[in-house]
Structure formats: structure tokens, C-alpha cells
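C-alpha cells as discussed.
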């Protein structure tokens, strides 16, 4: 989800698609202001929020403890007042009134365990629930609740709302079954709603009473066999702080496994029903499991894959992956044969902002407009709120496939077709990773697409001190540190693994999860067995964005699942260190022309003054080369080498924007990449950064070199779909809602690569238009020679990567012994990195000239260009040479060359 996790920088956000207008990054602060609550189904539009605001909200952290920075005096008393009517007359300056029940609070302190569990509250005042009032606690939690300070017989001097997630966890956290569960064909429906006054089931328009378990807060009902396939919602009466009153919400099931079109209602479906499985599903033979440390991952959006593919029979759908004769499917098979092991699908759960039936399309002749015209983005923007496109980082229902990718979004067809997609990808030699987004919801409060918060208000979302919902993730943040939100994450992941045979999960903004939550996912997956569950959970890979920012930054609320904290767990985090070194600068540079290792810094400078003087460029380039070396080791913290100043350093000693460049404990802790869906594509970054006169052939060579830095690193590597085909999004840096026009994947080189399809959408790119416009008309669009040549050369690198044990070093110690940078030091060549790993020598020559790299320690040894490149697709690399007498490797300009010992 983030463009860069640099400690000193803010994230790029993928916002849910706006319903009416686009919003720029510059207007993000306005976007994140909490919205007025919307009318909900089954209840009138709520009145304005009736909160009696305070600087610090009381937080009821367990059944016995309330944390509240009340401004009390010696004779002040503190109470929790509650009423089932919703009317609390108590307010500052008024008497508390009669007819309201109270829980008395006594002065107390936080225990060591409580301070450890709630580090952001550790220095605050605490109160104990008076033992005489403990019996009232459960009743109070289902009522209108307020904390007050007063003196007997005197007006109230302070009031505040009460946050209740902690006490709900203490009293009601449960492992009871939730959602639809079938026993011998008969369903039971259960929903966790401990604060609700009443919950009923609305089944096909009629109301069915549900029963409450007082111990767990779970409401449930047993159904008949003929309930299968019927639609349902829960009718929940509950106090809603955002509405300032009791509301009756008609809401779908958070544990839904099927939905009607546009998520209007849940559908009672049994995922074990054979009718929901494609032929051969029970006997599905997957490609051999690839350990995370050697995974080569292709990141792909389901709609991008086929929406613009004229050879696809079901464009834009799950079923497009079952079309074995389409250009897209054939290309994926070619990548699989070369060594790509996983396809990483951008979010495919139920999305809140894509209409599943009525979808708008731009009403313009887009192809006829000039390459630098603003009209394309205007026209796409006019229908963006209602078109078929969004990246999908706006969860609606976590455990149901998105309906807009199904041929029929109503009911269970999406289940069958999602499984058909997985089966088809597996049969093409690719395992499947699913991008999951549990760190936020598309909405909270009484919004129509808010599911969790309309059932247990104030629980599933992470709240700030003033009671507002944290939005550092771009949207309404969730709180996986709360027991039942954490459980929802685990339950949902296990369902995708068992019922859809997903082979891996990529966690969006994983650093906003507790480390314990992600480890709980790992533990639950490890318990899945082929005999009992149909999948081997131990072979399911996990990785995610370990960025450190927001209200949870630096473990403020819990130990986060960040880059540093996940080291040694076998759960990888994206490593941005080498990415920035290869591309240059960062995703948030005002000037996109800031260069890096693979974009010409110092060795092929452009006209940007922000690159600095020649001396400054050289110094920065050499530092980038040290960052790249750390990346090539797998971002290992303790790897020791000589840096470009001649010092002996570890990976952790190398600086990355004030943080250690190396943070990993093992090669499978860090995932390398040169581009992903966030920020400009690699082609577009090169367009901004390489000198304007650089030929299309040389741009293609630099693209392959940049991708090679990730592919030939230790540990897993990821590339964005189409990058090997020089994919462009016409310089769009945040195409989450830019439609098919800017996001299209062109599998046929005769269709070009997407460059020059107009100025990118103004919302996130207008400040870059002065840089973009001259490029869109001044740079030649690559032709088939460049596109097909780049793809073939990249596939050669994949063959080397997956065919050589040298790129499967399993421990940090093995990397230290077998991998080195023999020419690193004060005399290192700017723009060239030479790596020796086991029996191979890899030279990355990013300069525009042929370079000679003399490794005296190898003089007398026999080396030759790797046989894959020697017989491969790139004619230029075949001019690489090796002089055994001097140990000198000669590498053509803009080339990554791999040499094998003994000539092979």
C-alpha cells in the first residue's frame, strides 16, 4: 500500500474510490476528516453526533480498571453512568440527575502487566471498579455509557465518553463458531455482538429471533436445510457513539462467505458443497512448493490481466485465467517456465467501491487524443466513481471473493469462478498469493459500507485518545490488537487457505498489525494438513509491508510487525533500500528526475539540478552502491563487507534515511523489488530519470538491469506484472482509480506499452505535469524489438536465478561465507557492482560504456559467460568477456552479466 516506508517520509496512500469526485494527495488531510454518519438500512438518518467531547477519553481496559486523566480534586468522585434509554442528563455544569445507574470508581494504579499491554496508557491515571458494583459491568456495556466526575450534591465537573474494547476482550473474547456453519446440511448462524440490546435475523425479508449467550456475547440461531442459498442480514439494536443514540442497523455478516450483488445481503452458503467446486478441485495438483527464500513473484491485478486482452474470452474476470489460449495466459506460462513461482493477486476480496452490476465507461474517443493531452484523465475521472476499476484496498467483506470479477456477482458463482482461477494458475505452474488488507475498513461508524462498526460500535476500529477512528492507514483503521479483530484476521486467512487453496498471503501495511497477530496467522496455517484440511499449511508463504508509521509507530501500542521486528520469523517484509538505490531518490521527490544507480546518476546525468554537483552525484552513487550490496545479500543486518569508503561495515551500519539499511536475520526475511503497483512503473521512473535523449533500446536495457538487481538478490523477489514488457501507466504514480485506460496490460507488443496515453490523472500527478508533458511527446514508445527483447532477457535472468544453488543460500552465515563484493572499496567503479557468489560472478554495469572489472584473486581461474546468457536472447551480453590471465571481466554498457566458474 505504501510507496516508501522511509522513517522521515509519509506514505503514499491507496484511498477507497470516491463516490463523486477524485481527491488529490494534497487534499488527503481533508479526505481523512471523519464523515457525518450516513443513514443506515432499517433506521432513520442519525442526528448529529451527541458526544460530550473531552481532551482525554476514559478507556475501560478490563472489568476492574478504567484509565482516565480526570482533572479531579481531593473530594471529587468518579463514576460510570449508564442508562438503557440512551438519555444521560449528566453534563458538565449540571447535576448528575436521577434515574441513571452508576458504577463507582475508586483511585487505583496500573499493574506492570497492564502497563505492558497498554504502553500508550502507562503514565495515565487509573481507577478501580468498586467491587460492590462488579455485577453491573455487563449491563453497563449494553447501555449508553458515560464517565463523570462530580462532588456529591454538586454539578458535574467533567465528563467523557468511554472506550470499551479492553473490557469487551476481558469479558467476551471467545473461540465460539461465527458466521454460517453447516452440520449435516443444517445451518447455524452466529454473530458476536456483546453490546447489542437485541439481534434478530432477517431471512429473505422475514424476521427470525436469535438467542444471546450471556457468557460470550454471541447471538445465534439454528436453521433448516431449506435455508441454504437464502439471503440474510442481522438486525442489530445497539448504542452508536457516532450517531449519539441507539440505532437499529440492518447489516451483513462480518463472517459472510457469499453475498448478493453489490453486497446488499449475505448468502447462506456451504463452502464444502461440491456444487461450488470446479471439476478436479478435490484432486488439484499444485506446482511444487517453493520456499519463500527462493520465491520469484509476479504481482498482478485481476482486471489488468485481461480487460484489454482481445484474445481473452472472459476479459476482466476470474475465468480469464482459465483461457489457456489468450496472450496473457501464454505469457504467464512463459514466466513460469523461466522461474516465476507465484502470482500475487492484488486484493480480490469483496471491494466496497466497485459496482458489481452497473458499471460506467468513459464516453470519449481516448485513442484519438494527443499523448500529452489532459482530456484523457478528465474523461476517465468523470466515470471513475462508477466504473469497474479499483485496486481494491477498500475492504467490505474480508472472506468473500469480489463480485465484479465474476460472470454473475449474485450468490455463489464468484466462489466457483475464483476457485477455477486458482486451479488454472496452478495448472500453469504458478502458485497463488493473495493480497489481504485487514489493517483498515472502507468506512466506519454508520456508513453504509461499515459492517464491523455497525455491529459492535467502537470495538473493531482503532481509536485515538479523543475517541476518533485512527486513519493513518488512509482509511478507518482496524485494531487487530483487540482479540476479536485479531481472531477475524486469523479465521479469514484460514478460510482462504482451506477453502480456496491459496498458497500465500501478502499483508498490506503489516506494520499496523501486532507481531503477535501475524505469528498467530503463521501458527494457524502451520496446523493445516493435507489429510484433514486439503492443504499443507506449512508451505504457505507470508510476507507484507513492514512500514513503521502512524499512531502505532515505534511500538507505541504493541510490538509491531515491522521490518525490524519480523526479522528471524520467516515472514518477509518488503525491503525499500535497494529499490530506492536502483531508482534514485524517493517516491515523494518534488522533482522526479532525481537519479540512482540504474537511472544514470553521475555516469549519465540528466538536466535536473536536484541531482547536485558532479562531486555530490558521485558520492551519492557510491552510497547507493553500498545500499544495493546490502540488498543483494537479502538486507542482512550482520553481513560484513567493505563499503565504498574503504571501511569494514555491517549491513546495519549502512545508512538508509537515518535507519539501518540491513535489518534481516536470514535471507527469507526481506523481499526485494524494483517496482510494484505503487508509484510509477519502472519504465515510467526511467522515463523521468534517464536523459531525455536516451534511446528506447538503452531504456530497455536499463529496465532489465534494474529488474535484475532484485531477481539476483538473496531471498524472495517481486516484480510488477508487465514490467518485463516495459509496462507504462503514462507516468501515473498512483493509478488505484485510473481505470483500464491507464492501467491496461498490453500482452501484444504491437499495442505498445501504455506510454503516451495522456497526462496522468491530476489528483495525484498534476504537480508533475510540467515534467511529464515534454516526455509524453518527446520519448519514443518502445516497439516489439525492445519489448520482446527485454522480456526475453529478463526471463534469462530468471532461469539463472532458479537454476543456480548460489541464489538459494539458506542462512546469514552461508551468505557471509559464499557471497562477496571483491572490488568494493575506495577504488570501486562508479556505476558498477561486482558480486561473487559461490561459483558465479555477477557484474551489474549501469554505465553507458563497456567496463572492465579486474578481480585479481580470480586470476588463473576459468570463467565464462553463463550458458543461459551465452545461448540466450540478448545479443549484447554475448559480447561479455573474461581474461583468465588477469581475472578481468568485460561487460557491455547497461548490462547485467553472469559468469560461471569452469566455463560450463
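Sequence:
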Amino acid at each position: 500500500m505504501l510507496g516508501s516506508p522511509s522513517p522521515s517520509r509519509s506514505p503514499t496512500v491507496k484511498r477507497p474510490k470516491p463516490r463523486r469526485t477524485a481527491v488529490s494527495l494534497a487534499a488527503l488531510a481533508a479526505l481523512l476528516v471523519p464523515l457525518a454518519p450516513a443513514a443506515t438500512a432499517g433506521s432513520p438518518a442519525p442526528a448529529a453526533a451527541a458526544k460530550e467531547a473531552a481532551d482525554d477519553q476514559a478507556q475501560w481496559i478490563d472489568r476492574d480498571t478504567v484509565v482516565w486523566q480526570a482533572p479531579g480534586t481531593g473530594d471529587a468522585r468518579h463514576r460510570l453512568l449508564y442508562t438503557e434509554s440512551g438519555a444521560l442528563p449528566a453534563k458538565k455544569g449540571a447535576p448528575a440527575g436521577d434515574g441513571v445507574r452508576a458504577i463507582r470508581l475508586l483511585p487505583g494504579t496500573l499493574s506492570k502487566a497492564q502497563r505492558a499491554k497498554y504502553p500508550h496508557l502507562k503514565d495515565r491515571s487509573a481507577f478501580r471498579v468498586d467491587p460492590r458494583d462488579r455485577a453491573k459491568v455487563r449491563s453497563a456495556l449494553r447501555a449508553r455509557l458515560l464517565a463523570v466526575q462530580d462532588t456529591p450534591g454538586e454539578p458535574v465537573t467533567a465528563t467523557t465518553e468511554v472506550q470499551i474494547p479492553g473490557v469487551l476482550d476481558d469479558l467476551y473474547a471467545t473461540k465460539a463458531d461465527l458466521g454460517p456453519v453447516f452440520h449435516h446440511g443444517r445451518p447455524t448462524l452466529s454473530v458476536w455482538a456483546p453490546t447489542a440490546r437485541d439481534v434478530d435475523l432477517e431471512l429473505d425479508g422475514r424476521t427470525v429471533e436469535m438467542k444471546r449467550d450471556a457468557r460470550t456475547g454471541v447471538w445465534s440461531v439454528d436453521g433448516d436445510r431449506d435455508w441454504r442459498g437464502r439471503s440474510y442480514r442481522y438486525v442489530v439494536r445497539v448504542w452508536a457513539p457516532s450517531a449519539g443514540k441507539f440505532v437499529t442497523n440492518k447489516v451483513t455478516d462480518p463472517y459472510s462467505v457469499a453475498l448478493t450483488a453489490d453486497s446488499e445481503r449475505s448468502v447462506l452458503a456451504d463452502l464444502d458443497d461440491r456444487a461450488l467446486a470446479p471439476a478436479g478441485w478435490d484432486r488439484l495438483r499444485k506446482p511444487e512448493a517453493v520456499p519463500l527464500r527462493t520465491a520469484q513473484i509476479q504481482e498482478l491485478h485481476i482486471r489488468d490481466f485481461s480487460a484489454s486482452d482481445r484474445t481473452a474470452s472472459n476479459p476482466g474476470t476470474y475465468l480469464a485465467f482459465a483461457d489457456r489460449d489468450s496472450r496473457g495466459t501464454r505469457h504467464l506460462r512463459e514466466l513460469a517456465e523461466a522461474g516465476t513461482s507465484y502470482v500475487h493477486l492484488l486484493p480480490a476480496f469483496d471491494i466496497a467501491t466497485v459496482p458489481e452490476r452497473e458499471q460506467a465507461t468513459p464516453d470519449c474517443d481516448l485513442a484519438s487524443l494527443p499523448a500529452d493531452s489532459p482530456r484523457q484523465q478528465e474523461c476517465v475521472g468523470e466515470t471513475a466513481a462508477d466504473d469497474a476499476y479499483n485496486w481494491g484496498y477498500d475492504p467490505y467483506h474480508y472472506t468473500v471473493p469480489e463480485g465484479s470479477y465474476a460472470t454473475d456477482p449474485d450468490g455463489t458463482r464468484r466462489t466457483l469462478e475464483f476457485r477455477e482461477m486458482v486451479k488454472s494458475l496452478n495448472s500453469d505452474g504458478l502458485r497463488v498469493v493473495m493480497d489481504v488488507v485487514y489493517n483498515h475498513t472502507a468506512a466506519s461508524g454508520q456508513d453504509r459500507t461499515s459492517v464491523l462498526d455497525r455491529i459492535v460500535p467502537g470495538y473493531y476500529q482503532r481509536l485515538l485518545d479523543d475517541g476518533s477512528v485512527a486513519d493513518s492507514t488512509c482509511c478507518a483503521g482496524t485494531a487487530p490488537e483487540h482479540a476479536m479483530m485479531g481472531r477475524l484476521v486469523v479465521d479469514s486467512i484460514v478460510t482462504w487457505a482451506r477453502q480456496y487453496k491459496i498458497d500465500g498471503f501478502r499483508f498490506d501495511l503489516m506494520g499496523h498489525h501486532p507481531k503477535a497477530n501475524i505469528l498467530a496467522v503463521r501458527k494457524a496455517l502451520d496446523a493445516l494438513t493435507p489429510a484433514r484440511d486439503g492443504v499443507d499449511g506449512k508451505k504457505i508463504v507470508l510476507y507484507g509491508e513492514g512500514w513503521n508509521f502512524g499512531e502505532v509507530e515505534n511500538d507505541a501500542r504493541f510490538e509491531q510487525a515491522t521490518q525490524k521486528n519480523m526479522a528471524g520469523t520467516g515472514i518477509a517484509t518488503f525491503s525499500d533500500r535497494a529499490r530506492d538505490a536502483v531508482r534514485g531518490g524517493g517516491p515523494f521527490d518534488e522533482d522526479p528526475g532525481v537519479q540512482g544507480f540504474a537511472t544514470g546518476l553521475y555516469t549519465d546525468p540528466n538536466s535536473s539540478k536536484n541531482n547536485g554537483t558532479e562531486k555530490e552525484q558521485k558520492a551519492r552513487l557510491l552510497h547507493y552502491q553500498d545500499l544495493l550490496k546490502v540488498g543483494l545479500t537479502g538486507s542482512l543486518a550482520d553481513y560484513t563487507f567493505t563499503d565504498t569508503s574503504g571501511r569494514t561495515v555491517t549491513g546495519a551500519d549502512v545508512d538508509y534515511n537515518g535507519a539501518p539499511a540491513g535489518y534481516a536475520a536470514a535471507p527469507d526475511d526481506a523481499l526485494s523489488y524494483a517496482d510494484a503497483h505503487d508509484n510509477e512503473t519502472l519504465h515510467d521512473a526511467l522515463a523521468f530519470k534517464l536523459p531525455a535523449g536516451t534511446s528506447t533500446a538503452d531504456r530497455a536495457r536499463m529496465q532489465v538491469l534494474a529488474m535484475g538487481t532484485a531477481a539476483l538478490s538473496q531471498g524472495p523477489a517481486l516484480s510488477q506484472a508487465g514490467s518485463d514488457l516495459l509496462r507504462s501507466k503514462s507516468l501515473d504514480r498512483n493509478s488505484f482509480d485510473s481505470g483500464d485506460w491507464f492501467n491496461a496490460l498490453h500482452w501484444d507488443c504491437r499495442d505498445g506499452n501504455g506510454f503516451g496515453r495522456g497526462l496522468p490523472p491530476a489528483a495525484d500527478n498534476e504537480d508533475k505535469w510540467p515534467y511529464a508533458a515534454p516526455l509524453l511527446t518527446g520519448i519514443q514508445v518502445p516497439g516489439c524489438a525492445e519489448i520482446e527483447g527485454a522480456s526475453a532477457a529478463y526471463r534469462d535472468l530468471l532461469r539463472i536465478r532458479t537454476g543456480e544453488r548460489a541464489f538459494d543460500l539458506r542462512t546469514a552465515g552461508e551468505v557471509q561465507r559464499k557471497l562477496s563484493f571483491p572490488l568494493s572499496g575506495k577504488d570501486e567503479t562508479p556505476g558498477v557492482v561486482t558480486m561473487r557468489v559461490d561459483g558465479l560472478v555477477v557484474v551489474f554495469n549501469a554505465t553507458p560504456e563497456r567496463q572492465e572489472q579486474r578481480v585479481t584473486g580470480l586470476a588463473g581461474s576459468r570463467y565464462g559467460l553463463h550458458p543461459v546468457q551465452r545461448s540466450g536472447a540478448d545479443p549484447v551480453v554475448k559480447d561479455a568477456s573474461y581474461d583468465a590471465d588477469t581475472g578481468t571481466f568485460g561487460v557491455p554498457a547497461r548490462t547485467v552479466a553472469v559468469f560461471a566458474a569452469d566455463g560450463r
